[in-house]
């Protein structure tokens, strides 16, 4: 899981999912990488247990497994998201 | 910092430093990797700001920058260490 969240793109995906608090389709995310790289990041997140992916109609929806993660590693996800927010603010980003 | 802590060997180094709560020499750590790999891990930890390295006599001592990390990312280090402990217990390790 730490490996999964150590990549800036993957951390950004997780931050967006956490901020929305709902499932988002892959196409929702506008990352500055190729589509195949985006697909790779989603697979890493799914295989590490950070997100779940389900098909709804023709869309593949991504949901953060917050409850599962909080159960396994209490406080970790919130601390990571908080750290990412502080880091982004420090760098002048969003 | 997340990248630095996403490697199992580096996380183990940080866990030992946190458990001891004091500086440790590089030679204290008995990691199942080559000496040059160990040196690499210590460099990554230092360059990412997780540890500081100082020479005391002829020994290079490593110290966890806990206060700095806690200031930058409140709760993150403790949550990571707790997660690592739970993970290790789950895997039947130490």
Task: Outline the secondary-structure elements.
Two copies of one chain form a homodimer.
Chain A: H1 8-20, E1 24-25, H2 35-47, E2 51-56, E3 59-64, H3 66-72, H4 76-90
Antiparallel strand pairs in A: 1-3, 2-3
Describe what is shown at a glance.
The structure is a homodimer of 94-residue chains. Chain A is an alpha+beta fold and 94 residues long. Chain A has 4 helices and 3 strands, in the order H-E-H-E-E-H-H.
Strand order of the largest sheet of chain A: 1-3-2
* Biggest interface, residues from each chain: A-B, 18 and 18 residues
Name the CATH architecture of chain A: Orthogonal Bundle
Give the CA-based shape of chain A.
globular
What is the CATH topology assignment of chain A? Arc Repressor Mutant, subunit A
The helix/strand order of chain A is HEHEEHH
Helical amount among residues of chain A, as a percent range?
Answer: 40-55%
Total domain count of chain A: 1
Number of DSSP E strands of chain A: 3
Strand content of chain A: 5-15%
Organism (chains A, B): Streptomyces shaanxiensis
Protein name (chains A, B): HTH arsR-type domain-containing protein
Pfam families (chains A, B): HTH_20 (PF12840)
Domain HTH arsR-type (chains A, B): 1-84
